[in-house]
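Customer ticket, subject: "Can you confirm the structure for amidase?"

Message body: Hello, I'm evaluating your service for our small team and ran a test protein. I'd like someone to confirm that this is what the system normally returns, since I don't have a reference to compare against.
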Amino acid sequence: MPPSSEPAYVGIAQRKQAQLEAGIPAEWKLPAHMIPAGMLSVADSLTKANQYKRVNVMDIPRKSGILTQRQLDITEKFDVRGLLSQMADGKLSAEEVATGFCKRAAVAHQVTRCLTEPLFASAIERAKQLDEHLQRTGKPVGPLHGLPISVKDCFRVKGADASIGIASLAFKPSTLNSPIVSLLLSLGAVIIAKTNVPQTMGALDSCNHLFGRTLNPLNRQLTAGGSSGGEGVLVAMRGSMVGFGTDIGGSIRIPAMCNGIYGFKPSVGRVPFGDLESGQMPGKGRISLQAVGGPLASSVADLGAVMAEIVPRAELFGEDCIPGRWERESAILPELKPRKFTVGVLRSDGIVTPLPPIARILDEVAESLRQTPGVEVVEIPLPAALKKCQSIAGRLMGVDGGATMLDILEETGEPLIPWLEPRTKRGNPLSLAQLAQLQEQRSAVEKELLAMWTINGFYTDRVDAIITPVAPHPVPEIDRYNAVGYTSSFVLLDYPAGTVPVRNFRESDLETGIDMNAPILGSWDKANRALWNEKTVDRRVYLDSPLSVQVITPKQHDYELFQAMEIIDRASQAWQGAKSAGSKL
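Agent reply: Thanks for trying us out. I re-ran your input and got the following:
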Protein backbone atom coordinates (compact mmCIF):
# COMPACT_ATOMS: atom_id res chain seq x y z
CA MET A 1 0.00 0.00 0.00
CA PRO A 2 1.48 3.40 -0.93
CA PRO A 3 2.11 5.84 1.92
CA SER A 4 -0.63 8.36 2.61
CA SER A 5 -0.31 11.60 0.71
CA GLU A 6 -1.82 13.51 3.64
CA PRO A 7 0.56 15.60 5.74
CA ALA A 8 1.28 14.09 9.16
CA TYR A 9 -0.57 16.84 11.03
CA VAL A 10 -3.93 15.65 9.64
CA GLY A 11 -3.76 12.23 11.29
CA ILE A 12 -2.41 13.69 14.52
CA ALA A 13 -5.31 16.15 14.65
CA GLN A 14 -7.84 13.37 14.14
CA ARG A 15 -6.30 11.35 16.97
CA LYS A 16 -6.20 14.37 19.25
CA GLN A 17 -9.83 15.24 18.60
CA ALA A 18 -10.78 11.62 19.36
CA GLN A 19 -8.81 11.79 22.61
CA LEU A 20 -10.63 14.97 23.62
CA GLU A 21 -13.99 13.44 22.76
CA ALA A 22 -13.17 10.38 24.88
CA GLY A 23 -12.42 12.65 27.83
CA ILE A 24 -16.07 13.66 28.05
CA PRO A 25 -18.25 10.98 29.71
CA ALA A 26 -21.07 9.71 27.51
CA GLU A 27 -23.71 10.81 30.02
CA TRP A 28 -22.41 14.40 29.80
CA LYS A 29 -22.80 14.63 26.03
CA LEU A 30 -25.51 16.81 24.58
CA PRO A 31 -28.24 15.26 22.44
CA ALA A 32 -27.97 16.33 18.81
CA HIS A 33 -31.00 18.63 19.00
CA MET A 34 -29.32 20.69 21.74
CA ILE A 35 -26.36 21.61 19.55
CA PRO A 36 -27.22 24.66 17.43
CA ALA A 37 -27.44 24.14 13.70
CA GLY A 38 -24.43 25.14 11.66
CA MET A 39 -21.72 23.89 14.00
CA LEU A 40 -18.96 23.62 11.38
CA SER A 41 -16.41 20.82 11.35
CA VAL A 42 -13.00 21.48 12.88
CA ALA A 43 -11.49 22.07 9.44
CA ASP A 44 -14.36 24.20 8.16
CA SER A 45 -14.32 26.32 11.33
CA LEU A 46 -10.96 27.69 10.17
CA THR A 47 -11.79 28.29 6.51
CA LYS A 48 -15.53 28.98 6.44
CA ALA A 49 -15.97 31.02 9.60
CA ASN A 50 -18.10 33.60 7.80
CA GLN A 51 -20.84 30.96 7.59
CA TYR A 52 -21.53 31.07 11.33
CA LYS A 53 -24.94 32.46 12.25
CA ARG A 54 -25.92 34.64 15.19
CA VAL A 55 -26.49 32.17 18.05
CA ASN A 56 -26.32 32.68 21.82
CA VAL A 57 -25.57 29.45 23.71
CA MET A 58 -25.23 30.83 27.24
CA ASP A 59 -28.41 29.08 28.42
CA ILE A 60 -27.56 25.63 27.08
CA PRO A 61 -25.90 24.38 30.32
CA ARG A 62 -29.11 25.23 32.18
CA LYS A 63 -31.43 23.77 29.54
CA SER A 64 -29.39 20.66 28.79
CA GLY A 65 -30.67 18.55 31.69
CA ILE A 66 -27.12 17.29 32.24
CA LEU A 67 -26.63 19.32 35.42
CA THR A 68 -28.93 18.77 38.39
CA GLN A 69 -30.59 21.79 39.99
CA ARG A 70 -28.09 21.60 42.84
CA GLN A 71 -25.20 21.59 40.35
CA LEU A 72 -26.71 24.57 38.54
CA ASP A 73 -26.90 26.42 41.84
CA ILE A 74 -23.30 25.51 42.69
CA THR A 75 -22.02 26.78 39.35
CA GLU A 76 -24.15 29.95 39.20
CA LYS A 77 -24.93 31.34 42.63
CA PHE A 78 -21.58 31.86 44.33
CA ASP A 79 -18.58 34.10 43.95
CA VAL A 80 -15.12 32.73 44.78
CA ARG A 81 -15.17 33.59 48.48
CA GLY A 82 -18.74 32.37 48.88
CA LEU A 83 -17.99 29.02 47.26
CA LEU A 84 -14.82 28.58 49.32
CA SER A 85 -16.78 29.32 52.48
CA GLN A 86 -19.41 26.71 51.60
CA MET A 87 -16.73 24.04 51.19
CA ALA A 88 -14.71 25.06 54.26
CA ASP A 89 -17.88 24.87 56.38
CA GLY A 90 -18.79 21.46 54.98
CA LYS A 91 -22.02 22.67 53.36
CA LEU A 92 -20.70 21.62 49.97
CA SER A 93 -18.13 18.93 49.26
CA ALA A 94 -15.21 19.61 46.95
CA GLU A 95 -16.27 16.53 44.98
CA GLU A 96 -19.76 17.79 44.19
CA VAL A 97 -18.38 21.22 43.33
CA ALA A 98 -15.77 19.75 40.98
CA THR A 99 -18.34 17.46 39.40
CA GLY A 100 -20.73 20.34 38.76
CA PHE A 101 -18.09 22.51 37.14
CA CYS A 102 -16.67 19.61 35.11
CA LYS A 103 -20.15 18.89 33.75
CA ARG A 104 -20.67 22.53 32.89
CA ALA A 105 -17.27 22.75 31.20
CA ALA A 106 -18.12 19.67 29.15
CA VAL A 107 -21.39 21.21 27.99
CA ALA A 108 -19.71 24.55 27.22
CA HIS A 109 -17.10 22.82 25.10
CA GLN A 110 -19.66 20.99 22.98
CA VAL A 111 -21.13 24.27 21.75
CA THR A 112 -17.99 26.44 21.67
CA ARG A 113 -14.88 24.21 21.33
CA CYS A 114 -13.25 25.94 24.30
CA LEU A 115 -11.30 22.97 25.74
CA THR A 116 -8.11 21.18 24.73
CA GLU A 117 -7.56 18.87 27.70
CA PRO A 118 -10.57 17.87 29.82
CA LEU A 119 -9.03 16.89 33.16
CA PHE A 120 -12.33 15.80 34.64
CA ALA A 121 -11.35 12.42 36.08
CA SER A 122 -8.22 13.72 37.81
CA ALA A 123 -10.08 16.81 39.04
CA ILE A 124 -12.83 14.78 40.70
CA GLU A 125 -10.27 12.41 42.22
CA ARG A 126 -8.33 15.36 43.67
CA ALA A 127 -11.55 16.82 45.03
CA LYS A 128 -12.25 13.54 46.85
CA GLN A 129 -8.78 13.75 48.41
CA LEU A 130 -9.47 17.31 49.54
CA ASP A 131 -12.73 16.16 51.16
CA GLU A 132 -10.93 13.34 52.97
CA HIS A 133 -8.30 15.76 54.26
CA LEU A 134 -10.96 18.18 55.53
CA GLN A 135 -12.88 15.38 57.20
CA ARG A 136 -9.73 13.94 58.78
CA THR A 137 -8.11 17.16 60.00
CA GLY A 138 -10.98 19.62 60.20
CA LYS A 139 -8.94 22.06 58.14
CA PRO A 140 -8.96 22.91 54.43
CA VAL A 141 -5.82 22.13 52.44
CA GLY A 142 -5.30 25.81 51.66
CA PRO A 143 -7.12 29.09 51.14
CA LEU A 144 -8.39 28.00 47.69
CA HIS A 145 -9.51 24.55 48.93
CA GLY A 146 -11.69 22.99 46.22
CA LEU A 147 -11.84 26.02 43.92
CA PRO A 148 -12.42 24.87 40.29
CA ILE A 149 -9.85 26.56 38.06
CA SER A 150 -8.97 26.21 34.38
CA VAL A 151 -5.69 27.12 32.69
CA LYS A 152 -4.67 28.12 29.19
CA ASP A 153 -3.21 25.24 27.20
CA CYS A 154 0.34 26.61 27.34
CA PHE A 155 0.58 25.98 31.09
CA ARG A 156 1.96 22.54 31.88
CA VAL A 157 -0.11 20.11 33.92
CA LYS A 158 1.70 16.88 34.71
CA GLY A 159 0.38 14.02 32.59
CA ALA A 160 -1.41 16.23 30.04
CA ASP A 161 -0.28 17.70 26.75
CA ALA A 162 0.70 21.34 26.37
CA SER A 163 0.33 21.25 22.60
CA ILE A 164 -0.79 24.89 22.17
CA GLY A 165 -2.86 23.63 19.23
CA ILE A 166 0.15 22.42 17.20
CA ALA A 167 0.31 18.86 15.91
CA SER A 168 4.02 18.27 16.47
CA LEU A 169 3.62 19.12 20.18
CA ALA A 170 0.66 16.75 20.68
CA PHE A 171 0.88 13.42 22.48
CA LYS A 172 3.87 14.59 24.52
CA PRO A 173 2.47 14.73 28.07
CA SER A 174 4.14 17.14 30.46
CA THR A 175 6.37 15.56 33.11
CA LEU A 176 5.98 18.47 35.51
CA ASN A 177 3.65 21.30 36.41
CA SER A 178 4.23 24.91 35.50
CA PRO A 179 5.02 26.94 38.64
CA ILE A 180 1.65 28.69 38.59
CA VAL A 181 -0.08 25.30 38.48
CA SER A 182 2.04 24.08 41.41
CA LEU A 183 1.17 27.23 43.34
CA LEU A 184 -2.55 26.86 42.67
CA LEU A 185 -2.48 23.21 43.72
CA SER A 186 -0.60 24.10 46.90
CA LEU A 187 -3.40 26.54 47.72
CA GLY A 188 -5.97 23.75 47.36
CA ALA A 189 -7.35 24.57 43.91
CA VAL A 190 -8.68 21.92 41.53
CA ILE A 191 -7.54 22.15 37.89
CA ILE A 192 -10.49 20.95 35.84
CA ALA A 193 -9.41 21.65 32.24
CA LYS A 194 -7.01 23.29 29.81
CA THR A 195 -8.34 25.64 27.17
CA ASN A 196 -7.93 26.51 23.52
CA VAL A 197 -5.58 29.04 21.90
CA PRO A 198 -4.78 30.31 18.39
CA GLN A 199 -2.06 28.61 16.39
CA THR A 200 1.30 30.18 17.40
CA MET A 201 -0.57 32.03 20.19
CA GLY A 202 0.03 35.02 17.92
CA ALA A 203 -3.50 35.73 16.71
CA LEU A 204 -6.51 37.30 18.39
CA ASP A 205 -9.03 34.65 17.33
CA SER A 206 -8.54 31.28 19.00
CA CYS A 207 -8.35 28.64 16.28
CA ASN A 208 -5.90 25.98 15.16
CA HIS A 209 -5.78 22.78 13.10
CA LEU A 210 -5.68 20.53 16.18
CA PHE A 211 -8.84 21.67 17.98
CA GLY A 212 -10.61 24.00 15.58
CA ARG A 213 -12.09 27.42 16.32
CA THR A 214 -13.37 28.49 19.73
CA LEU A 215 -16.72 30.23 19.34
CA ASN A 216 -18.11 33.21 21.20
CA PRO A 217 -21.05 31.91 23.32
CA LEU A 218 -22.82 35.29 23.15
CA ASN A 219 -22.84 35.43 19.35
CA ARG A 220 -20.88 33.00 17.22
CA GLN A 221 -20.55 35.54 14.42
CA LEU A 222 -18.20 37.47 16.71
CA THR A 223 -14.70 36.53 17.81
CA ALA A 224 -14.10 34.93 21.20
CA GLY A 225 -10.74 36.69 21.26
CA GLY A 226 -7.27 35.38 21.86
CA SER A 227 -4.91 34.15 22.67
CA SER A 228 -6.62 33.11 25.93
CA GLY A 229 -9.89 32.70 24.05
CA GLY A 230 -10.81 29.32 25.49
CA GLU A 231 -10.42 30.74 28.99
CA GLY A 232 -12.63 33.71 28.20
CA VAL A 233 -15.40 31.45 26.91
CA LEU A 234 -15.23 28.87 29.71
CA VAL A 235 -15.33 31.50 32.46
CA ALA A 236 -18.16 33.38 30.73
CA MET A 237 -20.20 30.15 30.61
CA ARG A 238 -19.49 29.46 34.29
CA GLY A 239 -17.59 26.29 33.44
CA SER A 240 -14.76 27.50 35.66
CA MET A 241 -14.67 29.91 38.57
CA VAL A 242 -11.35 31.45 37.52
CA GLY A 243 -9.25 30.93 34.41
CA PHE A 244 -5.55 31.64 34.04
CA GLY A 245 -4.33 33.06 30.75
CA THR A 246 -1.25 34.83 29.47
CA ASP A 247 -0.82 38.30 28.01
CA ILE A 248 1.88 39.73 25.77
CA GLY A 249 -0.26 41.76 23.38
CA GLY A 250 -3.63 41.74 25.12
CA SER A 251 -4.32 38.02 25.41
CA ILE A 252 -6.08 38.26 28.79
CA ARG A 253 -7.80 41.60 28.33
CA ILE A 254 -9.09 40.95 24.80
CA PRO A 255 -10.92 37.65 25.53
CA ALA A 256 -12.35 39.29 28.64
CA MET A 257 -13.69 42.11 26.46
CA CYS A 258 -15.06 39.71 23.84
CA ASN A 259 -16.89 37.53 26.36
CA GLY A 260 -18.11 40.22 28.77
CA ILE A 261 -16.02 39.23 31.79
CA TYR A 262 -13.15 40.69 33.82
CA GLY A 263 -9.46 40.21 33.03
CA PHE A 264 -6.34 41.20 34.97
CA LYS A 265 -2.89 41.56 33.40
CA PRO A 266 -0.43 42.02 36.28
CA SER A 267 3.02 43.55 36.23
CA VAL A 268 5.98 41.27 35.59
CA GLY A 269 6.89 39.32 38.72
CA ARG A 270 3.46 39.05 40.33
CA VAL A 271 2.36 35.66 38.92
CA PRO A 272 4.82 32.81 38.16
CA PHE A 273 5.28 32.51 34.42
CA GLY A 274 8.08 30.00 33.84
CA ASP A 275 8.09 26.45 32.48
CA LEU A 276 5.28 26.77 29.98
CA GLU A 277 5.07 25.82 26.32
CA SER A 278 5.28 28.83 24.04
CA GLY A 279 6.71 27.38 20.84
CA GLN A 280 9.36 30.07 21.08
CA MET A 281 13.10 30.11 21.60
CA PRO A 282 13.81 29.41 25.30
CA GLY A 283 14.69 32.61 27.15
CA LYS A 284 13.25 34.89 24.46
CA GLY A 285 11.06 36.70 27.00
CA ARG A 286 14.09 37.82 28.98
CA ILE A 287 15.51 39.79 26.04
CA SER A 288 12.42 40.97 24.19
CA LEU A 289 8.91 41.58 25.50
CA GLN A 290 8.03 39.66 28.64
CA ALA A 291 4.58 38.09 28.77
CA VAL A 292 2.75 37.62 32.07
CA GLY A 293 0.14 35.26 33.43
CA GLY A 294 -3.05 36.43 35.07
CA PRO A 295 -6.67 35.61 35.90
CA LEU A 296 -10.01 35.98 34.12
CA ALA A 297 -13.13 35.89 36.26
CA SER A 298 -16.79 36.87 36.55
CA SER A 299 -16.18 39.80 38.92
CA VAL A 300 -13.50 42.12 40.22
CA ALA A 301 -13.92 40.50 43.63
CA ASP A 302 -13.08 37.08 42.19
CA LEU A 303 -9.91 38.48 40.59
CA GLY A 304 -8.91 39.91 43.95
CA ALA A 305 -9.70 36.70 45.82
CA VAL A 306 -7.15 34.68 43.83
CA MET A 307 -4.54 37.42 43.44
CA ALA A 308 -4.60 37.93 47.21
CA GLU A 309 -3.36 34.36 47.66
CA ILE A 310 -0.94 34.27 44.72
CA VAL A 311 0.97 37.54 45.05
CA PRO A 312 2.38 36.98 48.59
CA ARG A 313 3.56 33.47 47.66
CA ALA A 314 4.69 33.96 44.06
CA GLU A 315 8.38 34.41 44.93
CA LEU A 316 8.41 30.91 46.46
CA PHE A 317 7.30 29.29 43.20
CA GLY A 318 8.60 31.44 40.36
CA GLU A 319 12.21 32.46 39.82
CA ASP A 320 10.76 35.30 37.77
CA CYS A 321 8.74 36.68 40.68
CA ILE A 322 9.38 39.38 43.26
CA PRO A 323 8.38 39.63 46.93
CA GLY A 324 4.92 41.11 47.12
CA ARG A 325 1.93 41.92 49.29
CA TRP A 326 -1.68 42.22 48.24
CA GLU A 327 -2.00 45.70 49.63
CA ARG A 328 -0.67 49.12 48.76
CA GLU A 329 2.95 48.49 47.77
CA SER A 330 4.39 51.96 48.03
CA ALA A 331 4.58 54.20 51.04
CA ILE A 332 2.12 57.08 51.01
CA LEU A 333 4.01 60.25 50.17
CA PRO A 334 3.39 63.21 52.49
CA GLU A 335 0.63 65.41 51.14
CA LEU A 336 -0.56 68.87 51.97
CA LYS A 337 -4.23 67.90 52.26
CA PRO A 338 -6.53 64.90 51.83
CA ARG A 339 -6.71 63.98 48.16
CA LYS A 340 -9.46 62.51 46.02
CA PHE A 341 -8.98 59.29 44.06
CA THR A 342 -8.02 60.60 40.63
CA VAL A 343 -8.93 58.81 37.41
CA GLY A 344 -7.53 59.99 34.10
CA VAL A 345 -9.32 59.55 30.78
CA LEU A 346 -7.04 58.63 27.88
CA ARG A 347 -9.23 58.67 24.79
CA SER A 348 -6.93 57.39 22.03
CA ASP A 349 -3.52 55.93 21.31
CA GLY A 350 -3.01 58.50 18.55
CA ILE A 351 -2.82 55.82 15.85
CA VAL A 352 -6.40 54.54 15.64
CA THR A 353 -9.44 56.70 16.43
CA PRO A 354 -12.02 54.84 18.53
CA LEU A 355 -15.33 54.17 16.80
CA PRO A 356 -18.38 56.07 18.14
CA PRO A 357 -19.68 53.38 20.56
CA ILE A 358 -16.22 53.07 22.12
CA ALA A 359 -15.91 56.83 22.56
CA ARG A 360 -19.42 56.84 24.05
CA ILE A 361 -18.76 54.08 26.57
CA LEU A 362 -15.63 55.91 27.76
CA ASP A 363 -17.74 59.07 28.19
CA GLU A 364 -20.34 57.15 30.17
CA VAL A 365 -17.78 55.65 32.55
CA ALA A 366 -16.13 59.03 33.01
CA GLU A 367 -19.52 60.60 33.80
CA SER A 368 -20.32 57.84 36.31
CA LEU A 369 -17.03 58.57 38.07
CA ARG A 370 -17.65 62.31 38.14
CA GLN A 371 -20.81 61.60 40.11
CA THR A 372 -19.00 59.33 42.58
CA PRO A 373 -18.08 60.98 45.91
CA GLY A 374 -14.34 61.04 46.56
CA VAL A 375 -13.39 60.63 42.89
CA GLU A 376 -11.95 63.24 40.59
CA VAL A 377 -11.81 62.80 36.81
CA VAL A 378 -9.16 64.48 34.67
CA GLU A 379 -8.44 64.38 30.95
CA ILE A 380 -5.05 62.94 29.97
CA PRO A 381 -3.61 64.75 26.95
CA LEU A 382 -2.39 62.29 24.32
CA PRO A 383 1.34 61.79 25.02
CA ALA A 384 3.40 61.87 21.83
CA ALA A 385 5.44 58.90 23.05
CA LEU A 386 2.36 56.65 23.23
CA LYS A 387 2.25 56.51 19.43
CA LYS A 388 5.64 54.80 19.44
CA CYS A 389 4.68 51.95 21.77
CA GLN A 390 2.86 49.69 19.29
CA SER A 391 5.76 49.67 16.84
CA ILE A 392 8.38 49.00 19.52
CA ALA A 393 6.29 46.23 21.08
CA GLY A 394 5.74 44.60 17.69
CA ARG A 395 9.44 44.62 16.84
CA LEU A 396 10.35 43.19 20.25
CA MET A 397 7.88 40.33 19.78
CA GLY A 398 9.70 39.37 16.57
CA VAL A 399 13.33 39.63 17.72
CA ASP A 400 14.08 36.02 16.69
CA GLY A 401 12.56 36.26 13.20
CA GLY A 402 9.92 33.63 14.03
CA ALA A 403 12.04 30.68 12.89
CA THR A 404 11.47 28.49 15.97
CA MET A 405 7.69 28.42 15.60
CA LEU A 406 7.78 27.90 11.85
CA ASP A 407 10.22 25.00 12.28
CA ILE A 408 7.81 23.34 14.72
CA LEU A 409 4.92 23.66 12.27
CA GLU A 410 6.94 22.30 9.36
CA GLU A 411 7.81 19.10 11.27
CA THR A 412 4.35 17.70 10.43
CA GLY A 413 3.58 19.73 7.31
CA GLU A 414 1.12 21.88 9.25
CA PRO A 415 0.11 25.05 7.36
CA LEU A 416 -0.52 28.37 8.99
CA ILE A 417 -4.16 29.12 9.73
CA PRO A 418 -5.74 31.35 7.06
CA TRP A 419 -5.54 34.54 9.14
CA LEU A 420 -1.83 34.07 9.85
CA GLU A 421 -0.79 32.84 6.42
CA PRO A 422 -0.47 36.26 4.74
CA ARG A 423 0.88 37.89 7.90
CA THR A 424 3.62 35.47 8.94
CA LYS A 425 6.96 34.79 7.34
CA ARG A 426 10.51 34.05 8.36
CA GLY A 427 12.56 37.07 9.23
CA ASN A 428 16.10 37.78 10.30
CA PRO A 429 16.86 37.80 14.01
CA LEU A 430 17.90 41.19 15.37
CA SER A 431 21.57 41.72 16.03
CA LEU A 432 22.72 42.59 19.53
CA ALA A 433 23.22 46.19 18.42
CA GLN A 434 19.70 46.35 16.95
CA LEU A 435 18.19 44.85 20.09
CA ALA A 436 20.07 47.28 22.31
CA GLN A 437 18.88 50.18 20.20
CA LEU A 438 15.28 48.95 20.44
CA GLN A 439 15.51 48.61 24.22
CA GLU A 440 16.97 52.13 24.38
CA GLN A 441 13.91 53.39 22.50
CA ARG A 442 11.74 51.53 24.97
CA SER A 443 13.45 53.22 27.91
CA ALA A 444 12.97 56.64 26.36
CA VAL A 445 9.26 56.00 25.87
CA GLU A 446 8.88 54.71 29.44
CA LYS A 447 10.56 57.86 30.75
CA GLU A 448 8.38 60.20 28.70
CA LEU A 449 5.17 58.47 29.73
CA LEU A 450 5.86 58.93 33.45
CA ALA A 451 4.38 62.39 32.94
CA MET A 452 0.91 60.80 32.51
CA TRP A 453 0.83 60.01 36.22
CA THR A 454 1.14 63.53 37.57
CA ILE A 455 -0.85 66.69 36.92
CA ASN A 456 1.35 69.67 36.07
CA GLY A 457 4.35 67.80 37.43
CA PHE A 458 3.28 67.92 41.11
CA TYR A 459 3.49 64.63 43.04
CA THR A 460 0.62 65.78 45.26
CA ASP A 461 -1.57 65.83 42.14
CA ARG A 462 -1.08 62.21 41.15
CA VAL A 463 -3.25 60.24 38.78
CA ASP A 464 -4.19 56.97 40.49
CA ALA A 465 -5.60 55.12 37.48
CA ILE A 466 -6.42 55.73 33.82
CA ILE A 467 -9.37 54.49 31.80
CA THR A 468 -8.88 53.92 28.09
CA PRO A 469 -10.40 51.61 25.42
CA VAL A 470 -9.47 47.92 25.33
CA ALA A 471 -9.84 48.22 21.57
CA PRO A 472 -10.98 51.05 19.28
CA HIS A 473 -13.95 48.97 18.09
CA PRO A 474 -16.71 46.77 19.56
CA VAL A 475 -16.30 42.98 19.69
CA PRO A 476 -15.70 42.34 15.98
CA GLU A 477 -16.69 39.54 13.67
CA ILE A 478 -14.43 36.50 13.47
CA ASP A 479 -10.89 37.28 12.29
CA ARG A 480 -11.52 41.05 12.13
CA TYR A 481 -9.90 42.22 15.37
CA ASN A 482 -7.87 45.38 14.75
CA ALA A 483 -5.35 47.65 16.54
CA VAL A 484 -3.66 45.54 19.21
CA GLY A 485 -1.66 48.62 20.21
CA TYR A 486 -4.34 49.58 22.73
CA THR A 487 -3.28 46.56 24.77
CA SER A 488 0.29 45.71 23.70
CA SER A 489 1.53 49.18 24.64
CA PHE A 490 0.90 48.49 28.31
CA VAL A 491 2.88 45.25 28.15
CA LEU A 492 5.79 47.24 26.75
CA LEU A 493 5.41 49.69 29.64
CA ASP A 494 4.76 46.89 32.18
CA TYR A 495 1.70 48.70 33.51
CA PRO A 496 -0.85 46.43 35.20
CA ALA A 497 -4.04 46.60 33.18
CA GLY A 498 -7.53 45.15 33.45
CA THR A 499 -10.79 44.81 31.53
CA VAL A 500 -14.07 45.94 33.08
CA PRO A 501 -17.34 45.23 31.18
CA VAL A 502 -19.79 48.14 31.33
CA ARG A 503 -22.93 47.35 29.33
CA ASN A 504 -24.13 45.74 26.12
CA PHE A 505 -24.28 47.37 22.70
CA ARG A 506 -27.73 48.93 22.17
CA GLU A 507 -29.90 49.97 19.24
CA SER A 508 -29.07 53.58 20.09
CA ASP A 509 -25.37 52.83 19.54
CA LEU A 510 -25.93 51.92 15.87
CA GLU A 511 -26.12 55.50 14.57
CA THR A 512 -27.54 54.12 11.34
CA GLY A 513 -26.76 56.33 8.36
CA ILE A 514 -24.17 58.41 10.22
CA ASP A 515 -20.55 58.01 9.15
CA MET A 516 -17.35 59.10 10.86
CA ASN A 517 -15.99 62.38 9.52
CA ALA A 518 -12.64 62.54 11.31
CA PRO A 519 -9.59 62.30 9.02
CA ILE A 520 -8.13 58.81 8.62
CA LEU A 521 -4.84 58.65 10.52
CA GLY A 522 -3.19 55.78 8.63
CA SER A 523 -3.52 52.14 7.57
CA TRP A 524 -4.51 50.87 11.04
CA ASP A 525 -7.15 53.57 11.33
CA LYS A 526 -8.44 52.78 7.84
CA ALA A 527 -8.86 49.10 8.77
CA ASN A 528 -10.68 50.14 11.93
CA ARG A 529 -13.12 52.34 9.99
CA ALA A 530 -14.07 49.29 7.91
CA LEU A 531 -15.59 47.85 11.09
CA TRP A 532 -18.04 50.79 11.17
CA ASN A 533 -18.50 51.63 7.49
CA GLU A 534 -21.99 50.46 6.55
CA LYS A 535 -20.68 49.42 3.14
CA THR A 536 -18.29 46.91 4.73
CA VAL A 537 -20.17 45.77 7.84
CA ASP A 538 -23.74 45.40 9.05
CA ARG A 539 -23.51 47.26 12.35
CA ARG A 540 -26.38 45.23 13.75
CA VAL A 541 -23.94 42.36 14.22
CA TYR A 542 -22.72 44.22 17.32
CA LEU A 543 -26.11 44.33 19.03
CA ASP A 544 -26.04 42.89 22.58
CA SER A 545 -22.27 42.39 22.49
CA PRO A 546 -20.38 43.57 25.60
CA LEU A 547 -18.77 47.00 25.72
CA SER A 548 -15.84 47.35 28.12
CA VAL A 549 -13.14 49.74 29.26
CA GLN A 550 -9.51 49.14 30.11
CA VAL A 551 -8.07 50.33 33.42
CA ILE A 552 -4.33 50.88 33.92
CA THR A 553 -2.14 51.89 36.86
CA PRO A 554 1.61 52.58 37.13
CA LYS A 555 4.16 49.78 37.09
CA GLN A 556 3.93 47.37 40.05
CA HIS A 557 0.78 49.07 41.37
CA ASP A 558 -1.21 45.86 40.96
CA TYR A 559 -3.24 46.16 44.13
CA GLU A 560 -4.10 49.72 43.18
CA LEU A 561 -5.34 48.36 39.84
CA PHE A 562 -7.65 46.01 41.71
CA GLN A 563 -8.93 48.92 43.82
CA ALA A 564 -9.41 51.10 40.75
CA MET A 565 -11.30 48.35 38.91
CA GLU A 566 -13.61 47.99 41.93
CA ILE A 567 -14.33 51.73 42.04
CA ILE A 568 -14.88 51.97 38.29
CA ASP A 569 -17.02 48.84 38.14
CA ARG A 570 -19.28 49.94 40.99
CA ALA A 571 -19.63 53.47 39.68
CA SER A 572 -20.43 52.44 36.12
CA GLN A 573 -22.89 49.72 37.13
CA ALA A 574 -24.71 52.07 39.49
CA TRP A 575 -24.87 54.77 36.83
CA GLN A 576 -26.05 52.37 34.12
CA GLY A 577 -28.64 50.92 36.48
CA ALA A 578 -30.00 54.34 37.36
CA LYS A 579 -30.05 55.33 33.71
CA SER A 580 -31.96 52.18 32.77
CA ALA A 581 -34.44 52.88 35.56
CA GLY A 582 -35.07 56.33 34.11
CA SER A 583 -33.41 58.38 36.84
CA LYS A 584 -32.21 61.86 36.04
CA LEU A 585 -28.42 61.78 36.34
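A couple of notes from the result: The chain has two domains: 8-276+290-317, 341-580. The chain has 19 helices and 15 strands. Feel free to reply with more questions.
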